Amino acid sequence: MMRETFVDTTTALLAEDPRTALVLADISADAFEPARRRHPDRVLNVGIREQLMTGVAGGLALTGMRPFVHSYASFVVDRAYEQIKLDLGHQDAGAVLVSIGASYDGAASGYTHQSPGDVELLDTLEGWTVHVPGHHDEVPPLLRAAARHDDRVYVRLGLQENTRAYPDSARLRLIKRGGPLVVAVGPMLDPVLEATRDLDVTVAYTNTPRPLDAEGLRALAETEVVLVEPYLAGTSARQVAEALAGRPHRVLHLGVGREEVRRYGSWEDHARAHGLDAAGLRTPIKEFLW
Amino acid sequence: MTVTALPTDAIRAMVRRMSGDEKHAPSSYSTLDVLWVLYDRVLRIDPRKPDEPDRDRFLLSKGHGPAAYYAVLAAKGFFPPDWLDDMGGWDSPLGNHPDRLRVPGVEIGTGSLGHGLGIGVGVAHGLRAQGYADSRVFVLLGDAELDEGSNHEAIAYAAAVRLPLTAIVIDNQSATHGWPGGIAARFPGWIISVIDGRNHEQIEYALAKRHHDRPNLVVATVEPKRG
């Protein structure tokens, strides 16, 4: 559903704002064909050329346009990392990178189509805002907000969704008040709520882990904090440490493991393998907090 | 002007301010004649207004050895010639690879090879989408830089969509494995001219000519790199 929402919203943005451009590398090209026919100068499919896709986005931005760039996370971030670093960042050019595939949506496709390290890669670079929506209804406002400025934005779309949308979740949003704080990023909220249903914890949610809401974290955190993210475990360790610097604290970072699973199946299978389903989350959270 | 003449003695002196001596200056010269003709006779860029949206764009993809580039920009008034004296120094805006945020007139920051052509394709698309039909895009590469695969993504795509931009390859035979069959053979679908990279009349003729429906390549041959 997130992918369809992205197509609909970006198609609308292309019609509304002549500054908006879209650069594709074949992925989702069919879905954007009506938009390409209406705006052939601003909907560009460069073929299976992800380095070029990102370079073209940098060039478009340098002329004052607002490029959206789209492919699987493994191609838009991992493969074109140096173009993201140099053709965008070093030029002080902005773009909106919109990925699908997340960490393991491409479970049956194998590791070549998986990108658990995308957010950590972007963390090596300056100035990226990262959105990880947990529900398709959170996607349009994030894209529309990104279209209005020239900064560097990454929107990470996935198959896994929460049952309820929280569109206004750039800051940490209090979902459940109790004892120690558990922070859920994007689609991790529902598994976290189920895993902690009978536990005395505070649960907070965000769909914008970069910049991480340090003020909100300081306000909600006591001594123990658990952070649950749908990408590499520990990706936010530096941000949490900086936010809580100067006060005694313990943090448990849960997320995707670094080892290759080397199995196929579904995203649900891989969530289970990485301990990111409700049952898998419950044990380490309980052991850490009690 | 003879075919081997450098643009002006003044420009040579400017390059020496950066390279330090006669011995090292020639390595900075491979691009010099093309750059001088571009900025002196071809590009529509006003150094007093280097951000005009409808200006022509020159992208130095070959960010290595930018002394000639800096000298030409200084000679054309984009920044004071005094800046040339401390190239690469802590207090200098001029690095061994150019940074667009530090140097007026520099359109892109380069150094890592193989980035300028892809960005140039985006610039050409952006100008066209905004109706700047008269604005041209030039990208200068080195022949060794063509080893980078990213160039070939841009070369094939620009030909396929018949995008009007101009690539200039300075050929001083520095590619490790050379280009069997010639550099031009790597640009299928492009309009190609091969010229003497020291002959100002040839350079001007090749670069001033507009091609509205296809990309064009100018291979500017200069003396082989030594050492």
From TrEMBL, chain B:
Residues 23-220 form the Transketolase N-terminal domain. It comes from the Bacteria. InterPro entries: THDP-binding, Transketolase_N. SUPFAM superfamilies: Thiamin diphosphate-binding fold (THDP-binding) (SSF52518). Pfam families: Transketolase_N. Gene3D superfamilies: 3.40.50.970. Transmembrane segments: none annotated. This is Thiamine pyrophosphate-dependent enzyme. It comes from Paractinoplanes globisporus.
